[in-house]
User: Which sequence fits this backbone?
């Protein structure tokens, strides 16, 4: 196969995995709503905790790795959302929970429920992974991967083509936290 065909196959595989993941998240959300109705749970705080347990765990699975690009995009644009399918699902759940229109601003939904945008959670998880990795024993495979990502960070490419470390640094910088890639430290 040529490189372009391999690239297309790789992209098709990624799309297939994403669609399966999105379907699982929607199923988890439906199960959460159904279970709340069956048991008679109407209190919004309880439903939000169940959403976090049953749905967010599916939505954010592995987000410390894949979510940094979306978090950096949302933080840099000051839109409050990266527009990802996961965030749309979260906001859809909040709209349903509060019984408000689709046109209700996302910021109002999040403020009313006391929830944070998923991208903020993803950025926090990525920062925890950064710290945990740097605390690993020197030379561990995870630490080697992180340091390789730091070496690849050059800032000359668009955000989507940057290394994980560069995307994390961009996301943290957008929320006012500096990450020195020249001297990695927890």
Assistant:
């Amino acid at each position: 196969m040529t490189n372009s065909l391999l690239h297309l196959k790789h992209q098709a595989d990624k799309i297939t995995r994403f669609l399966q993941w999105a379907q699982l998240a929607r199923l988890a959300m439906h199960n959460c709503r159904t279970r709340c109705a069956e048991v008679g749970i109407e209190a919004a705080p309880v439903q939000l905790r169940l959403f976090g347990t049953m749905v967010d765990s599916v939505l954010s699975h592995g987000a410390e790795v894949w979510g940094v690009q979306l978090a950096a995009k949302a933080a840099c644009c000051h839109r409050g959302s990266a527009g990802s399918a996961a965030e749309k699902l979260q906001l859809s759940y909040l709209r349903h929970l509060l019984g408000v229109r689709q046109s209700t601003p996302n910021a109002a939904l999040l403020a009313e429920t006391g929830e944070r945008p998923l991208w903020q959670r993803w950025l926090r998880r990525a920062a925890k992974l950064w710290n945990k990795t740097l605390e690993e024993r020197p030379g561990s495979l995870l630490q080697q991967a992180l340091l390789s990502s730091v070496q690849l960070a050059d800032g000359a490419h668009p955000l989507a083509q940057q290394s994980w470390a560069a995307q994390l640094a961009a996301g943290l910088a957008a929320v006012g936290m500096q990450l020195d890639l020249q001297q990695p430290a927890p």
Remarks:
- The chain has a mean pLDDT of 85.
- Helices lie at 3-39, 44-59, 63-77, 85-98, 106-113, 118-134, 141-152, 164-174.
- Residues 64-80+120-186 form one domain.
- The chain has two domains: 3-59+82-116, 64-80+120-186.
